[in-house]
Write a structure and sequence with these properties.
GO biological process, one term: lipopolysaccharide biosynthetic process
Pfam families: Polysacc_syn_2C, Polysacc_synt_2
Bound molecules: uridine-5'-diphosphate-glucose
EC number: 5.1.3.2
Oligomer: single chain
Strand content: 15-25%
Order of helices and strands: EHEHEHEHHEHEEHEEHEEHEEHEEEH
Structural class: alpha/beta
Largest sheet: 9 strands, mixed
Protein name: UDP-glucose 4-epimerase
Catalytic activity: UDP-alpha-D-glucose = UDP-alpha-D-galactose
CATH class of one domain: Alpha Beta
Radius of gyration: 20 Å
CATH architecture of one domain: 3-Layer(aba) Sandwich
Strand order of the largest sheet: 3-2-1-4-5-6-10-15-14
Number of strands: 16
């Protein structure tokens, strides 16, 4: 393996989130020397410090918007998993500039500092909402991807890869934990739109994608895990079955600010260039320079062949029973 976690020092930005915790566990099991958790929230850091009580984990308070704070944490780091982001769709819609500062400028800062510190590889976490983005969260993540790709063109010593995934079931503030809270509080479930579809994945799958990118991604790659999708109608049916609450009431609340009816993991233009790796898609960087005259004759082959994106509307759907099983499994973890 080209990149080896054994005895390495790894920095996780936004490391106190559910992803950070899951990846920390894997890193520790792979024999890393040190995991550095970088985040803004001292309360969450304190909780994690007590929970782990492990001398291999160190905590850095800082903000990706502030280069100096990243610099303090980046010294002698081998690898970076960049998960820090503003990621809630409605709140980014009300504060788009904040999304820009954290997701775009913050990523640029993390990459600049990583390159200056000769970090070997950085994996930047993105989302399906960055594809044909209509909300500020997705738009800022789309620009984040562009920043990462642009820097990968010149960052010879530091490899930069992007991973993109759909909705992670256990993610804080997302619909599954929100529904559990509603049931605990005796409140009706709230559904935006029965026909809305999303790619659903477990935290384990999200972590596996990032580790795959770490092991196999080439500089400038965007890696996407193939996932099945579900409609909200099936989601709610499965939720009621899993919790054994068949007659629980459901209220319609309508589509929220900035929401799309369905999400795309790969745009049409990307799907044309994507390499099918069975479980994953790999979209290599377009390595042509700005001097297009050099490339005119070749052009890009096959541009007219595919006219659909890889989206949650045309993707394979998850069976009701599979979803029920997944929810039951999730309930044992939550
Ligand atoms: O009370 C609710 C809340 C949500 N939904 C629906 O459930 C689906 C999932 O919603 P949610 O869990 O809030 O996720 P998204 O808004 O799709 O965005 C999430 O998924 C992204 C990846 O696509 C992450 O990057 C974001 O951080 C995360 O908020 C959507 O169709 C919502 O319309 C409801 O029907 N009722």
């Amino acid at each position: 393996m080209l990149f080896n976690l054994n005895k390495s020092t790894v920095l996780i930005t936004g490391g106190t989130g559910s992803f950070g915790e899951a990846v920390t566990n894997i890193l520790l099991s792979q024999g890393v020397n040190e995991v550095r958790i970088f985040s803004r929230d001292e309360k969450k850091q304190d909780e994690l410090r007590k929970k782990y009580s492990n001398s291999k984990i160190s905590f850095y308070i800082g903000d990706v918007r502030d280069k100096e704070s990243i610099n303090d944490a980046m010294n002698n780091v081998d690898y970076v998993f960049h998960a820090a982001a503003l990621k809630q769709v409605p709140s980014c819609e009300f504060f788009p500039l904040e999304a820009m500062k954290t997701n775009v400028i913050g990523t640029s800062n993390v990459l600049d500092v990583a390159i200056a510190n000769k970090v070997k590889k950085v994996i930047c976490l993105s989302t399906d909402k960055a594809v044909y983005p209509i909300n500020a969260m997705g738009q800022s993540k789309a620009l984040m991807e562009k920043v990462a790709l642009a820097k990968s063109r010149t960052s010879k010593g530091t490899q930069i890869c992007i991973t993109r995934y759909g909705n992670v079931l256990a993610s804080r503030g997302s619909v599954f934990p929100v529904f559990l809270e509603k049931v605990r509080g005796g409140l009706p479930l709230t559904v935006t739109d029965d026909e809305m579809t999303r790619f659903i994945m477990t935290l384990e799958e999200a972590v596996n994608l990032v580790l795959y990118a770490f092991e196999s991604g080439i500089n400038g790659d965007t890696l996407v895990q193939k996932s099945k999708s579900v409609s909200m109608k099936i989601f709610i049916d499965a939720f009621k079955i899993a919790l054994n609450i068949p007659d629980y009431s459901v209220e319609k609340i309508g589509i929220r600010h900035g929401e799309k009816k369905y999400e795309a993991l790969l745009g049409e233009e990307e799907l044309l260039r994507a390499v099918d790796l069975e479980k994953f898609y790999r979209v290599p960087i377009d390595s042509r320079g700005l001097n297009y005259e050099q490339y005119m004759e070749e052009g890009i082959a096959g541009l007219a062949e595919i006219n659909e994106s890889y989206n949650s509307n045309n993707a394979e759907r998850m069976d009701l029973q599979d979803l029920v099983d997944l929810f039951k499994q999730e309930l044992t973890i939550t």
